[in-house]
Every structure is written in structure tokens, then in C-alpha cells.
Amino acid sequence: MARTTPTYTPFGKYALAIIVSFSLLISDINYQTFSTARGFVQATGIYGQLFINSFTINIKKFNAIYQDKQMLIKGNKGLKSELSILQNKIFLEKNSQVLANDLLNLHDETLALSRGEEALIFQIASFGLKNYLCCSSHSLYLKNPQKLQVAVNLPVANGDTFIGQTSSLDLNLIKVILFSDSAHILPVKIKNFFCNARGAGKPLLISCRVNKSSEFLKIQNNDPVLTSGLGGIFPRDIPIGKVININNSILNESEIIIALNVSPLKSNYFGVLVN
Amino acid sequence: MKLSLHFIIFITIFTGFWVDGLISQFNVREYLHLANNIPYLIETCIGFLIFCYWVYAMPEKLHSSAALMHGLIIDLCFGSAVGFHMLFFVSISYIIHVYVFRFRIFSYLQLIIFFGTASVFYLACKYLIFFPTNYSYLLLIFSFLINAGAWLPIYFGMRSFRRTFIK
């Protein structure tokens, strides 16, 4: 049984609402009208998550300290707790030493990639894992606690290779667009063959669509793929991946599928080459 | 309708979209070796179905302006293009409003088919507009089964929630 009687549904209001929302959608997709507002809300959300994480860690720390003190007051287990504190300290110092060494290595590798230019190391703030696994938009955010002015379109390194470039700066979080993003194009070199590799929209994959030429015919699977330096953003001759397949099923064209060397999921720190 | 009621409704819709995000991040390929080579097939529309439930349950209280505002806030919070959820919320709201009394004499199976189809249409438009390279019919078929299966738990769960918290 219906709880209420049928009422009139005003078509005019709904039509107006549909027109308004459709106009907003078209303007946002074509002209990025609301990208600033969207970036602001997303960055605020990430800051909220970071704040909650640090708050939770502090609560846990406080709880741990409180429990330790309770144990000390009881006295019976004093020596045991002291020993565990010492062990914890040694473990933390050892781990912080390992982390410091890792950071130094990353800094050295990034400096080697930068070829004399300045390089900065940033910690990851958020990774768009949902879109990375399912969809064609692949990006991550880096923390910038010192509020450094980082320009857009700077190369982002991970270990001894590149993974993407800076895209925007939202509330001091640096947005990085990855090579595998379908909107990203990277000029690459395979042997003596040059092409523009577009992100495939799938993790760790990029691809070149090319006309068949004599240089193209020399390309084989497992050939190393290097940056060509033609875009003016990335230094040339840096290995970024290897050819894994050549698809000749398209008329007059071929598609070279390239697998990237390094997964951005496996690192917490990334280097940015600053001009 | 009171603003607090709108807020409660929005919290449930927001939670639905948040759960959608969590489910999307779950990568079955990491846990199941056999699934290494299968494409991405799991895409739920729990948030969208929760919104449909509210319009279906309280059509006299949720009109075009409410659908527009809920859509706008969801667009801003979840980073999709502004206007996308607004458009779909207003459209589905209109359809449910027009046919609400007919829906109430539908069987559960008919409701499952209708809301499953609506969510797949929403999903198909989302992929065609934002991720055309990842669009696949296999994904839509799997999503239809998942979302159609999700309708009844959402319906009974939200009905129980409504009867408990909204008098």
C-alpha cells in the first residue's frame, strides 16, 4: 500500500536542473572550469587523512607510553620493561639508519639522473590506487612540508629511472602524472627509432603508434626503451622500460607496447629534478 | 524537510560512495593467482543505489533541488567532473518520481532488474565519458550482476536504517 497519494511531479524544475547540470558537466570536461575547486577539495581530503593518521599514531603512542608507565609502577616487571624499551630503541635506531641510507641512495641516484641540476626528494602523500588499477587516470600526490615552489612539468624519478612528471600544486601537495596515464605522452627512443609513447591507461604500460619504416623493422621484443630528450623535459638516454610486444594488426600502422621498468607502488620517496 | 534529515541522507550516500572506492581498491589479482590475467571486472554503484533508495522511499521529500545539491557535493568530494552526479541524480530522481507508485506494486525481481539496469547505465556513461579506453561490455555485465545482487541488501538495510533513525 502506498503511504502517500500520487502527487504532481513538476517537469519544468527537473528539466531546468538537467540543463544546469549538463552545462556544468560540459564546461568542466571541455574547459576544466572547476578543476581548481576540485583540486582544493581533494587536497583538503588528503590533508584530513594525513591529520587523522598522525592523530591516530599519537593516540597509539600515548597509549603505549601510558601502558609502559603502568607497568613500571607495578615494579615487578621493571627490569623486563626496561629491557624491552632498550630493544625498541635499538630497533628504531637501526631502522632509522636504514631509512637514512635509503634516502641518501635515492638522492645520489636522482642527482645522477639530473646531470648536475638540482634534485629534491619528496615523500608520497597519496596514491590514486583506485584509478591506477581500473582506469586510465594515473597520478599520485607528494608531500611538500617545506612549501617549496615546484614548477609543473618537472621530471619525477624513482631509483635510477623516471616515473612521471609534476602536474600541479594543490595546497602544497605536488600532483604527479604517471607515464601510464592515457593523457601523458613521452618522446622515446628505441635503438635509432623515435616515437611518442602514450600511456596505455594500464599499470606499467605505455605504447607507440607508428607508421612502418625501415628503422621500425629493426625493433624486437626486449629492446631497451630510452628517453629521447626531444620533449625538453626529460634528459636523454635514460632507460625507462623495454619493448614487450609489437602489434601489427592495424592497417598501415603498428603499435609498440612498452613495459616500464619501475612500479611507483614500490617506493615511498620520489625525486624531482628542479631546473 | 529538515536540514538535519538531508544531512543524514547525504551521510549514507557519501558512505556508499566511500565503500565503492574501497571495493575498487581491492585488487583480487594480488590474492588469486588464477585471476592474474583477467581484466578489471568489479565496479559497484552502492552510493548511487542508496540515493535511488532514498528517492524511492521518500519521493515527497526529495525533489530536483535536493538531487542537484547531493550530486554537486558528491562531485566535489569524489573528484569527478562537476555536473556528472548532478545529472544522473536529477535524471533518476525524475524517473522514480514519475513511476514511484507503479514501482511499489512491482515484485522484488522487477525492482532488482530496474535498479541494476539503472546503475549499469550510470556506469557505462561514467566509463564512456571519463575512461573510454577501459570501457568493456564484460565489465558492464559483471557490474549488472553485482549491482542487481546488491539492491536487496541495500533496500532492506536502508529501510531498517530509515525506520530506526528517521521518524
Q: What are its keywords?
A:
heterodimer, A: 275 residues, alpha+beta, six-stranded antiparallel β-barrel, 5 helices, 12 strands, 29% strand, globular, B: 167 residues
List strands and helices in order, with pairings:
The complex is a heterodimer of chains A (275) and B (167).
Chain A (H helix, E strand, L loop, with lengths): L10 H21 L3 H40 L3 H37 L3 E10 L1 H6 L4 E4 L12 E4 L2 E10 L2 E6 L6 E6 L2 E7 L5 E7 L2 H4 L6 E4 L11 E9 L5 E8 L8 E6 L1
Antiparallel strand pairs in A: 1-2, 1-12, 2-5, 3-4, 3-12, 4-5, 6-7, 6-9, 7-8, 8-11, 9-10, 10-11
Chain B lengths: L2 H23 L2 H4 L14 H12 L6 H15 L5 H20 L4 H23 L6 H29 L2
Helix pairs in contact in B: 1-3, 1-4, 3-5, 3-7, 4-5, 5-6, 6-7
Structure, explained:
The complex is a heterodimer of chains A (275) and B (167). Chain A is 39% helix and 29% strand. Chain A is of the alpha+beta class. Chain B is mostly helical and 167 residues long. Chain B has one domain (3-165). Chain B has helices at 3-25, 28-31, 46-57, 64-78, 84-103, 108-130, 137-165. In chain B, helix 1 (3-25) crosses helix 4 (64-78). The model of chain B has no long low-confidence stretch (mean pLDDT 88).
Brief digest:
The complex is a heterodimer of chains A (275) and B (167). With 275 residues, chain A is of the alpha+beta class.
- Total count of strands of chain B: 0
Tally of helical runs of chain A = 5
The low-confidence parts of chain A are none
- N- to C-terminal separation of chain B? 12 Å
Largest sheet of chain A: 6 strands, antiparallel, barrel
Could you name the CATH homologous superfamily of the domain at 185-264 in chain A? Rod shape-determining protein MreC, domain 2
Helix content of chain B: over 70%
The secondary structure category of chain A is alpha+beta
